[in-house]
From TrEMBL:
Signal peptide: none
Entry-linked SUPFAM superfamilies: MFS general substrate transporter (SSF103473)
Species: Penicillium frequentans
Topology in the lipid bilayer: Multi-pass membrane protein
Location of the region described as Disordered in the Swiss-Prot/TrEMBL record: 1-21, 565-585
The keyword Transferase is annotated on this UniProt entry: no
Subcellular location: Membrane
Entry protein name: Peptide transporter PTR2
Source species taxonomy: Eukaryota, Fungi, Dikarya, Ascomycota, Pezizomycotina
């Protein structure tokens, strides 16, 4: 029987006479879920690979469905807003309004600015827990994102209104800023915990499948590689969005902070509109009721019995507790155990996020201590996303495929450990640059002293601002390995009903990193900051090495852990082409 015959044989009667893909894309969460349960479960050549084929055949990834690209556009707009806005915060808070150090607003000096920007980062990565609970237990990912987009817009509007010159001159700046970042942090948290799993939800295949390429090569379509590709592209879109920092520093310098914030507000409105108008294209999962509550109950049973299998109904029966009624099955507990493994992996991430957070805070201040040659100090941040945009296509189209052809595994644990090591190089380079600044005149160890002022504006020591570039490049490369792999790990290791919640646990590590960075704020002064960079370099390097030794055994279990999703009741395939073929039948 041919492949198309098989498709026709299992096509649900409700869809048999349809002629358009658009007509069968659901617009209601319940219908979408029902379709998932009824949908096709086919492989490219009608068979799954055996163990020998898994070892001998090349593994490949599939292309992204259109709905995944729409989600990526929404994230691009949100990140455009987030980075374009927060990238101006250091100067907005630090420098006085029309003061001697150039255009400013709140005048809270270096430590005050670092403290508030670090708090904002912390808040943005605590709130995803709330967004995850709302999505997984009450509204579902899509509706949660829409509601939190509305909250985000309110915060942006407050930020714009309180940053205009009249508002700043009348003392509304600080109060308005604090209210705005609290509301914006709530909005971005609700979005971040859901948009990353939502984009991966658009891809439907759960099991490996054998197919033949146009050149006649038999290969294996590997869902894990497709998820990896999805998050590489997703992260690339994030960093395309973050190039807003090419525009907002100049708007800040020549027009005012309010203009940059207004641009961010307009871009976010575009993303929200895309989210709403593209509704019919998305694969949307309904909420699963008390799933979060059930998970915590199961965890409590594990702790009380000191056995991770204790919440399983089969374990309860085997131990004479047949009368106990549990709202889950053994498979759910296996998935929960896998999620706990992911959370153990995430425990090392706070150190990485302390390092990562330097590029939007202390690196900006460092750039301001150097000769700018007409380049705004907060413009240098753009070399981070630029490096990511350059290296992601190189890795995805050249390096990773070449490694797969040579049968060289590059599993998530390995990539994460490498990300920590590369991040340590960024910190070491930043320490070297700081030493160069202190070694140069006219201010030496006290940058921005009166000796460097020209027309009342401090110019920094005689070190070219471009020397800072490699620090941002190292940070960007480390993100590709550590941050992208973390997103991928959070999705693939989470139970299908808890994708947003596990994603929020991953994002929470960023909040812990921000808390650690907040504790380091007292060291954010000259010349102690140079030694802070050295300490972070050592900490990141050691964490990468320890992480590898503790978790490298999980690389061998990767396929087995990912295979648990194959039994989640969702369809193995249907990708859009398979749907289209079935509609024709």
């Amino acid at each position: 029987m041919s492949n198309t015959d098989k498709v026709a044989e299992v096509t649900p009667p409700a869809y048999a006479n349809e002629t358009s893909v658009e007509q069968v894309i659901v617009t209601d969460e319940k219908r979408d879920f029902d379709m998932d349960k009824e949908a096709l479960s086919v492989t490219a050549d009608g068979e799954e690979p055996n163990d020998d084929e898994k070892r001998s055949l090349r593994h490949v990834a599939e292309n992204l469905p259109i709905s995944a690209w729409l989600v990526a556009i929404v994230e691009l707009c949100e990140r455009f807003t987030y980075y374009g806005m927060s990238g101006m915060f250091q100067n907005y808070i630090q420098r006085p309004l029309d003061g001697s150090e150039g255009r400013g607003a709140l005048g809270m000096a270096h430590q005050g600015a670092t403290g508030l920007t670090t708090f904002f980062q912390f808040w943005c990565y605590v709130t995803p827990i709330l967004g995850a609970i709302v999505a997984d237990q009450y509204l579902g990912k899509y509706k949660t994102i829409v509601w939190f987009c509305g909250i985000y817009l309110v915060g942006l509007l407050i930020l714009v209104c309180t940053s205009i010159p009249v508002a700043l001159e009348n003392g509304a700046g600080l109060g308005g800023f604090i209210v705005a970042i609290l509301i914006i942090g709530l909005g971005t948290g609700g979005i971040k915990s859901n948009v990353a799993p939502l984009i991966a939800d658009q891809y439907k295949r759960k099991k490996m499948a054998v197919t033949t390429t146009k050149k006649g090569e038999r290969v294996i379509i590997d869902p894990a590689l497709t998820i990896q590709r999805i998050y590489m592209i997703f992260y690339g879109c994030i960093n395309v969005g973050s190039l807003s920092l090419l525009a907002t520093p100049y708007m800040e310098l020549y027009i005012g902070f309010w203009s940059g914030y207004l641009l961010c507000l307009c871009m976010f409105a575009v993303g929200t509109l895309t989210l709403v108008l593209g509704r019919k294209y998305y694969v949307v999962r309904p909420p699963q009721g008390s799933i979060i509550t059930d998970a915590f109950k199961a965890l409590g049973m594990m702790i009380m019995n000191r056995n991770m299998d204790a919440p399983k109904p089969s374990w309860q029966i085997a131990n004479g507790n047949a009368e106990v009624s549990l709202p889950w099955d053994d498979h759910f507990i296996d998935e929960l155990k896998r999620a706990l493994i992911a959370c153990r992996v995430f425990a090392f991430y706070p150190i990485y996020w302390v390092v990562y957070g330097q590029f939007s805070g202390n690196f900006v201040t460092q750039a301001g201590q150097m000769k700018g040659h007409g380049i705004p100090n907060d413009l240098m941040q753009n070399f981070d996303p630029i490096s990511i945009i350059v290296f992601i296509p190189l890795l995805e189209t050249l390096v990773y495929p070449a490694m797969r052809r040579m049968k060289i595994p590059f599993r998530p644990i390995t990539r994460i450990a490498l990300g920590f090591v590369v991040a340590s190089l960024a910190m070491m380079y930043a320490a070297i640059v700081q030493h160069m600044i202190y070694s140069a005149g006219p201010c030496y160890g006290h940058p921005l002293c009166t000796a460097s002022e020209v027309d009342g504006t401090a110019q920094g020591n005689n070190v070219h601002i471009a020397i800072q570039t490699p620090a941002y490049v190292f940070i960007g490369i480390s993100e590709i390995f550590a941050s992208v792999s973390g997103l991928e790990y959070a999705y693939t290791k989470a139970p299908p009903s808890m994708k947003s919640f596990v994603q929020s646990m991953y994002l929470l590590t960023n909040a812990f990193g921000s808390a650690l960075a907040e504790a380091l704020t007292p060291a954010a002064f000259d010349p102690a900051i140079m030694w802070m960079f050295v300490g972070l370099a050592c900490a990141s390097f050691l964490c990468g090495i320890i992480f590898w030794f503790v978790f490298h055994h999980l690389n061998a279990q990767e396929d087995d852990m990912n295979a648990l999703d194959a039994d989640d009741g969702m369809p193995d395939a249907p990708i859009e082409e398979e749907r289209r073929q079935s509609m024709k039948q």
